[in-house]
């Protein structure tokens, strides 16, 4: 067990214990109230109104009716405003208005809800000149709007794009599409939170924002933006010299090794909370592995040592049993165990090209990487070895996220879930592989796929 896993488990156990301790007084209070109150309570407690101050007895009927009225009115105010705001944010181009709405939502979410409610209630009361149920309903609605809006935006993202495209293809007006397609589709998800019928988007593994790479004054990769989902295969294709490999090497900080290289933008992981370009390079490479175009097992190491070389080179000590387990487990994942199990202590460079490349993949997997970068991993291999690598890549996506650079359009179409097309340092198009290869949106993509250049 590594230090990071140990710390995570320790933190989880501590939180559980503290939560349990904090619950004890609450449970005792509830138990006391139930024991003392239930014996004295009858049905009239729920039907009678609250008496005047200082008078004993009475009930809570007015409180129950008031609460129902308050929540109903606030919901009727907040829901349409939130849904329309979410639709506007989801389908409008970025503008000052969308920025203002997003900023307002962020501000309201960052302030404790009780503070927002009290401030709104005070402002409404001062404006109306008196206390009223409507004042409370408006205050509660303002507290609800940012949360409903954010949730609605997320539900809208789950609507299959083909559903919306089909509505447009029918010649529908946007206003009617909103009220006859979008809102009826998202309401079940908002009300019941049962979203299984809608296409659930996978979690984000990595998000690239405005990524640029220079070598001296040469701008090689230009403002690339894309999102990579967990446990998916992303293929990056394009003609030679278009910046594919340069983009890939930026993800695990390989350009740090080149004095003339400069990288700008963001590469976000951990749900957007960590920027790879601001992290320690060594920790990045231990989480994001890379396999290069030509197989490169360490020539001075055996097959066994190559698999655990990440631990050797980072100074991490392992017990013999842990080493044996890592070697067998990852050679099996790389579909190489049966071929080399009887010669683990032979040099890795004596393997065939395809076997060496699978050994390099096993070497990365042994570090328990979250994302694996493959830079044209089959370009130096024969067709049989290429097929084995492709089959391996498809199996590995159940455990990790994979980004592969390839010159082969057919390979991209065979193995990837999403494909990006780069040309002259720019990401021209990025979409699901099925869409990219059947109905590309950009003419330049279509020309490349049909062999007019490249």
Automatic annotation (TrEMBL):
Keyword Transport attributed: yes
Protein's membrane topology: Multi-pass membrane protein
InterPro entries xref list: AAA+_ATPase (IPR003593), ABC_transporter-like_ATP-bd (IPR003439), ABC_transporter-like_CS (IPR017871), MetI-like (IPR000515), MetI-like_sf (IPR035906), P-loop_NTPase (IPR027417), PstB-like (IPR005670)
Single GO molecular function: phosphate transmembrane transporter activity
Any single GO CC term annotated in Swiss-Prot or TrEMBL for this entry: membrane
The organism's taxonomic lineage, starting at the top: Eukaryota, Metazoa, Spiralia, Lophotrochozoa, Mollusca
Keywords from the UniProt entry: ATP-binding, Membrane, Nucleotide-binding, Transmembrane, Transmembrane helix, Transport
Native source species: Magallana gigas
Stored SUPFAM superfamilies: MetI-like (SSF161098), P-loop containing nucleoside triphosphate hydrolases (SSF52540)
Subcellular localization(s) per the UniProt record: Membrane
UniProt-listed GO biological process terms: phosphate ion transmembrane transport
Primary site of residence: membrane
Name used for this protein in its record: Phosphate import ATP-binding protein pstB
PANTHER family reported in the protein's UniProt record: ABC TRANSPORTER I FAMILY MEMBER 17 (PTHR43423)
């Amino acid at each position: 067990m590594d230090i990071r896993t140990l710390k995570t488990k320790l933190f989880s156990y501590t939180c559980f214990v503290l939560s349990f301790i904090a619950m004890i007084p609450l449970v005792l209070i509830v138990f006391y109230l139930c024991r003392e109150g239930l014996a004295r309570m009858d049905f009239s407690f729920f039907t009678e109104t609250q008496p005047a101050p200082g008078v004993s007895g009475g009930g809570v009927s007015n409180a129950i009716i008031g609460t129902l009225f308050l929540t109903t009115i606030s919901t009727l105010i907040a829901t349409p405003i939130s849904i329309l705001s979410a639709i506007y944010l989801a389908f409008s181009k970025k503008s000052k208005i969308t920025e203002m709405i997003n900023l307002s939502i962020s501000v309201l979410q960052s302030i404790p809800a009780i503070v927002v409610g009290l401030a709104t209630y005070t402002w409404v009361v001062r404006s109306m000149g008196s206390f009223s149920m409507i004042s409370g309903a408006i205050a509660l609605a303002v507290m609800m709007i940012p949360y409903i809006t954010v949730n609605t935006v997320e539900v809208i993202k789950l609507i299959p794009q083909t559903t919306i495209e089909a509505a447009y293809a029918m010649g529908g007006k946007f206003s009617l599409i909103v009220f006859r397609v979008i809102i009826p589709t998202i309401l079940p998800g908002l009300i019941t939170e049962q979203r299984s019928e809608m296409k659930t988007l996978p979690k984000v593994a990595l998000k690239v924002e405005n990524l640029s790479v220079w070598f001296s004054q040469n701008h090689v990769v230009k403002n690339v933006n894309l999102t990579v989902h967990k446990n998916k295969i992303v293929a990056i294709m394009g003609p030679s010299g278009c910046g594919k490999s340069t983009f890939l090497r930026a993800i695990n900080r390989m350009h740090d090794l080149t004095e003339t290289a400069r990288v700008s933008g963001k590469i976000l992981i951990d749900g957007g909370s960590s920027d790879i370009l601001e992290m320690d390079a060594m920790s990045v490479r231990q989480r994001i592995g890379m396999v290069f175009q030509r197989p490169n097992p360490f020539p001075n190491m055996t097959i066994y040592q190559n698999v655990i070389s990440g631990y050797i080179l980072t100074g991490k000590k392992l017990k013999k049993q842990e080493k044996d387990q890592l070697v067998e487990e990852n050679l099996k994942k790389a579909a190489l165990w049966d071929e080399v199990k009887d010669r683990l202590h032979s040099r890795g460079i004596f393997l065939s090209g395809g076997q060496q490349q699978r050994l390099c993949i096993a070497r990365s997997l042994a570090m328990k990487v979250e994302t694996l970068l493959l830079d044209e991993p089959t370009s130096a291999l024969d067709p049989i070895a290429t097929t084995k690598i492709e089959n391996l890549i498809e199996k590995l996506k159940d455990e990790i996220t994979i980004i592969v650079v390839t010159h082969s359009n057919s390979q991209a179409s065979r193995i990837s879930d999403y494909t990006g097309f780069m040309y002259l340092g720019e990401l021209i198009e990025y979409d699901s592989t099925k869409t990219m290869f059947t109905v590309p949106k950009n003419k330049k993509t279509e020309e490349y796929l049909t062999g007019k250049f490249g």
